[in-house]
Design brief:
This protein is α+β, with helices and mostly antiparallel strands and 182 residues long. It has one domain: Aminopeptidase (3-Layer(aba) Sandwich). It contains six helices and eight strands, in the order E-E-H-H-H-E-E-E-H-E-H-E-E-H. Strands 1-2-3-4-5-6-8-7 form an eight-stranded mixed β-sheet, with helices on both faces. Strand 5 (90-97), helix 4 (107-121) and strand 6 (127-133) form a beta-alpha-beta unit. The longest helix has 15 residues, at 107-121.
Length: 182
Amino acid sequence: MMREYRDEKTGICLRLMTAQDTDLIVAWRNQDAVRKNFIYQELFTREGHESWIRDKVETGQVVQMIICDTATGRPLGSVYIRDIDREHNKAEYGIFIGEEDARGRGIGTAAARLMLRYCFEEERLHRIYLRALATNLQAIRSYEKAGFVREGLLRDDVRIDGQYRDIQWMAAVSRESNTLQQ
C-alpha cells in the first residue's frame, strides 16, 4: 500500500495511474504546449500508451502517477520514473502538466518534490535524474526548486525538427542514501 503523497499548500496529491487514465494522458501528451518540451515529440496513441502500461508499468520498469487537485480530485498532469535500475538504485524522472489552467502555479515543483519523496522513501532509490531541453528554462528552474541539481550540458545531443538541441542533465540524490540502501 502506497503512502499518501500530498502538498496541502499547493493543493495537490499523487495517485497511481490506472488504465482508465489512458485517454486523458494521450490527450494531454499530444497538446503542442506539452509535446514541445519533450525530447520524444511524436504523437501519442491509445495503443502506444496501452503498450507502455503492459511493457513498462506492469513489469516494474516504470511507476507513473497522476497529479490531482486535492479539493476536487481533478487530474492535472502526470509524473513518472522510468528505466528503474535496481542494481544502481536510480531512475529517470519525467513530468507534464496537462491542464492549461494548472500551469505556472507551482504544481510542477510540488509534484516533483512529492515524487522525489516517493522515490527515496518507497522505492528506496538513491538517485533520480532527468533530461530537459536546455531552452526550457521554466522547467529547469522548477526542477532546481524541487531539489534537482544541474550536472552537465550535453551540447547538440538530440535532433528535433532537423535542428540539434542541447540537453540539460540534472539529478537529485537521496540525503539518506546510507540508510536507504537495500
